[in-house]
Amino acid sequence: MRKLRELNAYPFLGDKDFMTPLHLAVESGVPSLVVIVCNKYTLVNRFSIKGLTALQLAVKSRSPEIVEALLKETVSDLNKPLEESSTNLLGFAVKNGDRNIIRLLVKAGALLRVIIQYHST
Fold it and tell me: Which terminus of the chain has fewer Cβ atoms in its 10 Å neighbourhood, N or C?
């Protein structure tokens, strides 16, 4: 909470890692805080320096309550491949067996995207 308050003066700049108030709220693991920040913060698809949006961070953190809160906002990164990966959010959730997150993503329109790389010998 303190870090979010520190960023309040410059909500669109984020911290040194470009972690926006929304990224920090997701990292907190508190769904109600994510909802509060979403209501005041419009850049829900902004990437951190780690190459993740807040939604991608929530899926990687395996938090269905936070994923659900973020999906209620306008998000456009449902089918983008994850950084350094050949899969997208739905593929990541399938790999981890996160049934609740899978249901939420499918309901929101996510498509399964897995790139199979063939190696010739």
Answer: C
